[in-house]
Amino acid sequence: MSVTALAGAGVRHHVHWTERLAHAALLLVALALLAFLAAPLATILQKSVQDGDGRFVALANFIAYAQTPSLLQSLGNSLWVSALVTVVTVPLAFGFAYALARSCMPLKGLARTITLVPLLAPSLLSAISLIYWFGNQGVLKGWMLALGVEQIYGAPGIVLAEIFSTFPHALMILVTALAAADARLYEAADAMGTSVARKFFTITLPGAKYGLISAALVTFTLVVTDFGIPKVIGGNFNVLATDVFKLVIGQQDFQKGAVVALLLLAPAVLTFAVDRWVGRKQTAMLTARAVPYRAKPAPAFDALMSIYCAGTCVLILAMLGMAVFASFATFWPYNLQPSLRHYTLGLVDAEVGVAFVNSLKVAGGTAVFGTLLVFVGAYLLEKTAGLARVRVAVRLLALLPMAVPGLVLGLGYIFFFNAPANPLGGLYHTVTLLTVCTVVHFYTTGHLTAVTALKALDPEFEAVSASMKVPFYKTFWRVTLPICTPALVDIARYFFINAMTTISAVVFLYSPETKVASIAILNLDEAGEIGAAAACAVLIAAANTVATLLFMGLSRWVDRRTQAWKTH
Predict the structure, then answer these.
(1) How far apart are CA 106 and CA 376, in angstroms?
(2) Cβ(451)–Cβ(381) under 8 Å?
(3) CA–CA separation, 524 and 17 (whole Å)
(4) Which residue of 138, 190, 359, 533 shows the fewest CB atoms closer than 10 Å?
(5) What pLDDT, on the 0 to 100 scale, is given for residue 473?
């Protein structure tokens, strides 16, 4: 054989070997998603069509559910409460986003930062604060009575707490939607003498309609699937999320629990499908010739927007501030002297300190291993070739968690990992499984962030590397990873903060030894120790604040080390 032929054979073998390595890595990602996402969800579907002995009963469980008035009432409660919160939250968030994008009010950065505060605390914090504000011994209980509302417990408390909890999510979407505006449209309208109101209804609203739809869908889904707030402040007002918990933990009725889980899954899947359809319909607001919109000073309008945003920020800080104040109050409402009694009770006597350490372990593991899995999976999908069918499956599975509520995923984990025949059953009740569940729960957002960062890189990197016989993993390590490091930091921060605050995804999976801080809040509240529960919620918010600052410092260090090429 000639030297040229030998060289060619060597090159083909080298490429073939690296392709096999990439394919093996992609198959591992696919297997991980199948084992920890698809299989638990399939188990829920299986349970819903079986009786207690495992026999197939078709739709008998669904018929039994439909014939249970109390459960049907919970379905109705979930739907109308979610609809009401959506109708209130989206306009409030749109007004704030409009002020940030279209006014010249001062201190925009501060206002934007304050609106992000609820994201750092578990949703339970808003429910606890409302109890201190308007509960039976609340500071402003008289206000509720004056408005004709007998008590905060039940639907009023759920609605108010959910508005506080979902406001930042809707705001982030709407700020992005309003940022994509072409100033030329407004200049043309001004030249034609168009009124302010007409410009708003013919230019601003149509341009932001897809953002409004997405914000409404996200808000509705977050409320209908939330467990923590209805559990703390819902009283006797039952919703689907609390029904699942009662059926599975209280009554051990796994079949009806699976039915309710599928009902919870339905609006989330519908929302996801509509959002994808809306996304395909959306046209680009900013073209290559577009002129970025710059707000012009208007004293009266700017003052009005400043008052609105200041009022909103005061309400947000009042919710957080009350939780902090109550956590230090010695004995509410009779002795308000500051003390560490509730922190001592929670961290030492109630062993919340152990739960807090577990939360840090889960959050740290989620941030490290979740970021690694998400980025490697996204890289293999975007920058390697082959295994077309596996790629389609992985893409679908990567997007699926966005449509799966945490409560449903956690229930699937009970059914799947607690099965005696499952070889992975040893993971049940471990911190490892809590970490895996959290990674899967928040997988989609991290995946989309990684894909966005990778799509910004020119495919020529891989093409040139292949032509120079450089294995793909060296290109990944030397080129792709350094350039995408800022995105990795963002993904890790997202994973860490959400792992600290999540409740629904892990509420079914902990043991006394692996209890996390967000679950400890629920247990303290059930025991009547609401002050200690507030202290625990404040600790979670403080930990996330410190983590956010550390991630910001890491991000700046990463930018200096890996992004210097942008300045040349």
Answers:
(1) 42
(2) yes
(3) 56
(4) 190
(5) 63
Q: What is the pLDDT of residues 503-521, one digit of tens each?
A: 888 888 888 888 898 898 8
Name the residue range of residue 46's domain.
Answer: 9-50+341-562
The number of folded domains in the chain is 2
Clarify whether residues 463 and 370 are in a common domain. yes
Cα-based angle 326, 329, 333 (whole degrees, multiple of 5) = 85
Least confident of 112-116, 346-350, 353-357, 426-430: 346-350
**Three-class SS state of 470:** coil
322 & 365 share domain: no
**Cα separation values, 275 from 83, 213, 221, 222, 270, Å:** 17, 8, 12, 14, 8
Alpha-carbon 53 to chain mean position: 36
pLDDT at 437 over 90: yes
For 192, the token pair is 């034609």
CA distance 31 to 40: 13
Q: Which residue has the tokens 């902090």?
A: 324
pTM beyond 0.90: no
Structure-token match 């934007």, residue found: 112
Q: Examine residue 356 and state whether it is found in any structural domain, yes or no.
A: yes
Say which amino acid occupies 7.
A
d(CA 540, CA 37): 27
- Nearest CA among 456, 474, 476, 486 for reference residue 560: 486
Q: 256-260, 481-485, 534-538, 552-556: which range is least confident on average? A: 481-485
Same domain flag for 240 and 279: yes
The 8-class DSSP code of residue 352 comes to H
Domain final residue pick, 273, 296, 329: 329
Q: Establish if 568 belongs to a structural domain.
A: no
CATH number at residue 131: 1.10.3720.10
Measured distance between the N- and C-terminal CA atoms of the chain, rounded to whole angstroms = 49
Distance, CA of 313 to CA of 320 (rounded, Å): 11
Sign of the four-CA dihedral 467, 468, 471, 473: negative
Three-state secondary structure readout of 490-555: HHHHHHHHHHHHCCCCCCCCCCCCCCCHHHHHHHHHHCCCHHHHHHHHHHHHHHHHHHHHHHHHHH
How far apart (Å, rounded) are the C-alpha atoms in residues 525 and 127? 11
Beta-bridge partners for 292: 182
Residues 394 and 514 in one domain: yes
> 206 and 126 in one domain?
yes
Q: Indicate whether 140 and 235 sit together in one domain.
A: yes
In a domain? residue 210: yes
Strand-pair partners of 329: 338
Q: Are residues 322 and 347 in the same domain?
A: no
Amino acid identity at 551: F
In a shared domain, residues 348 and 445: yes
Last residue of a domain, one of 306, 329, 352: 329
Per-residue pLDDT band at 12 (split at 50, 70, 90):
very low
Residue 536 domain flag: yes
Distance of CA 294 to the CA centre of its chain: 31
337 sits in which H/E element = strand 335-338
303-347 tens-digit pLDDT:
999 999 999 999 999 999 999 999 998 888 888 888 888 888 767
Q: Using CA of residue 475, residue 480, residue 483, residue 486, what is the dihedral sign?
A: negative
